[in-house]
Amino acid sequence: MSTQRKTRQRRAIWKAIQAAGRPLSPQEVLTLARAEVPQLGLATVYRSLNALVDGEEIRAVELPGESTRYEPADLAHHHHFICTRCKKAFDMEGCMLKHELTLPPGFKVISHEITLSGTCPDCD
Ligand SMILES: [Zn+2]
Ligand SMILES: [Zn+2]
Which structural domain, as residue segments, surrounds residue 31? Predict the structure, then answer.
């Protein structure tokens, strides 16, 4: 594959993730990026996603029992919400845990993850 074509595909994928405003599955990335690169295939999407993760332009979002989603790497700390009906993942601003948690002496938190689940407005 030519470098130019690869660059164009990768850029379309990056743009789709950047514009979505929520974490996307590879299938969702494919659907959105095809608007710009109609001949795009799922294998190329996976390859490009891995390259973009390696380049720290996007990051993988692991949700319990779900396929990996992808979001821009530069987002501030936030949490995720997964709709149990349409399976879309959403960003939830803020952090309810930051000031609420009292740790026993000697414990230091380095990171935490919270995944909320329920129904989104479209599915309610
Ligand atoms: Zn939904
Ligand atoms: Zn948090």
Answer: 3-72
